[in-house]
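Risk register update: the risk of archive-format incompatibility is retired. Evidence:
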Amino acid sequence: MASGGSSQGIGAAIAERLARDGWSVTINYSGSEQPAKALVDTIAAAGGKAIAITVDCSDKAAIKAAADETRAKLGPIAILVNNAGITPYKPFFDLDDDLFDKTIAVNLRGPYLITKEVLPEMVAAGWGRVINITSSSVQSGAVDLVHYVSSKGGLMGMTKALALEFAASGVTFNIVPPGVIDTPMLRGAPIDAEAFAKTLPMKRMGTPADIAAAVAYVASEEAGYITGQTISTNGGRYMGSH
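Archived output:
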């Protein structure tokens, strides 16, 4: 069983891909239930199995309830994709403490809480995959996103620390930082995404399926000797090693 966040954009593509690869999938979402239910139906129509659960990923009790429901309906959790996140653009001098704290709560504390909830069963099973979706902005920096980049940078560090601590357990921890990906969230951002994409080496935006393919690989049995790694999926925006 695989568990991930979001019912649209990158999250939806990841859910569909993992379902196609044979995993039963829980779609954790907040906000409107319609996209999540539509995604469940799409996966079912393709022969897969999925459920949707609304959950505040910064709420420890809600996370436990969602995990328990997942186990009851689908079985043990073997793959965790921490994809849920918020990207509120705000210049640094306009950034208030509450927004900074909220961004950290959702983008960093949330993955910490979810990982802590599901990791024991992965370790007990001797097999598991934790895949954290960060951002290429962690590698390059980004204007008006100090709070966001800080949260995703923390998630990158947490992934590497866990990879070391649990390297011999059979559970791997890897990072997929998307570049400029054509999603509803990006389309709604206060930037000209298409113009920015043309400055990249590949001269175009990526697709949610590009991220899903990277996730599917590190989630696979074939990637069992890969841990603590950054699988940069960004059209050449950043070519460093971390």
